Amino acid sequence: MSTATATALDAAQTVTFAKVGKLAPDFDLPSTKNLETLAENAKLSDYKGKWLVLLFYPLDFTFVCPTELISFSDRLEELQGLGAEVVGISTDSVYSHRAWLSTPQDKNGIEGVKYPLASDVGGKLARAYNVLVDEANIALRGLFIINPEGVLQYSVVHDLNIGRSVDETLRVLQGLQTGGLCAADWKPGQENLKA
To answer: For an engineered disulfide with 60, which of 100, 132, 142, 153 has Cβ 3.0 to 4.6 Å away?
Structure first.
């Protein structure tokens, strides 16, 4: 085995993959936190002590993606009221993100979205969260909830043609925050199951 092959295998073995109940894979990605300069990265460590909702999506300037990102932005205060923040992530460049965020919604843009978009151009983070479509270098729709200690608590991944539900995300987040057992179709305000 060549030295290059051995090095590549060593690097592949050190990749941390997302697994519910384990520490979430770390990230430090270019982002739109500062839309003008694009000089502020989004890092997992920025959200220590808060709940974090990661929204992987396929591409900027598409059809289903803006409906999701705008819906999560419209409900951001509710999420923040529960101690949660949101970061959107795709394999587009941070420059594409800025252009999309600067395009009016009636022109297929997402102007007004209130949380940052992070750029995972090489797909490394999407791969770590097992949402990367290698052939196209795009992410499936993946939604991940990470607790304030950095542990992945929830993971849902699906194909590209259907958007995610903010209501369901809020329900799951509140259920996780109870720390107890939540029955099927549990709703906030209902009691937890007794063990």
So the answer is: 100
Whether pLDDT at 5 is above 50: no
> Which domains are assigned to the chain?
16-178 (3.40.30.10)
DSSP H or E segment with residue 64: helix 64-74
The C-alpha atoms of residue 118 and residue 184 are separated, in whole angstroms, by 33
Q: Give the distance, in angstroms, between the CA of residue 6 and the centroid of all CA atoms in the same chain.
A: 32
Radius of gyration of the chain (CA): 17
On whether the CB atoms of residues 97 and 89 are closer than 8 A, the answer is no
Q: Dump pLDDT digits (tens) for 143-187.
A: 999 999 999 999 999 999 999 999 999 999 999 999 999 999 999
Structure tokens at 128: 């770590």
**Residue 116 pLDDT level (bands cut at 50, 70, 90):** very high
Cα-based distances in Å from 92 to 27, 97, 99, 115, 158: 16, 7, 11, 16, 19
Q: CB of 5 within 8 A of CB of 138?
A: no
Q: Which residues are catalytic?
A: 65
Query: With contact defined as beta carbons under 8 Å apart, do 62 and 160 qualify?
Result: no
Task: Tell me the one-letter amino acid at 9.
Answer: L
| CA–CA gap between residue 159 and residue 164 (Å, rounded) | 11
Structure tokens at 195: 């063990």
Asked if the model's pLDDT at residue 10 lies above 60, the reply is no
